[in-house]
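request received
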Amino acid sequence: MSDCIFCKILAGEIPSYKLYEDENTFAFLDAFPGTRGHSLVIPKTHYQDLFDTPEDVYSQLISTAKKVANALKKAFQFDGMNLFQTTGKAAGQTVYHIHVHLFPRWMGDQALGGWKPIQPSKKEFEKTRDLISANI
Ligand SMILES: [Zn+2]
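response:
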């Protein structure tokens, strides 16, 4: 896509701190890191989000994410890592070229907020399970 910032990075039109690439994926440092080493993995083909990305491409993303995560761990010896992918504005997606975040964590860094549990009733849990199961 011509106006996609990640496609422009892949085309070399915008510089990035490249970490790794293979035939299908590309990994680089997030330009606005939440912690040291915060990195992104993207497919070389443009897909918007979780829902339009084919399963094989998603698998390639996760495979590369694992490889880069191992390197990050060796480099920084952090205490933990969040691996996440946002789909849609409500989830915090800002670049609509699917990407997986590798987010190193250190004890007490407070770099990401937690969530407040919604505390569903037993009946609500069952209804939620049934709705999802019926659609798999
Ligand atoms: Zn793109």
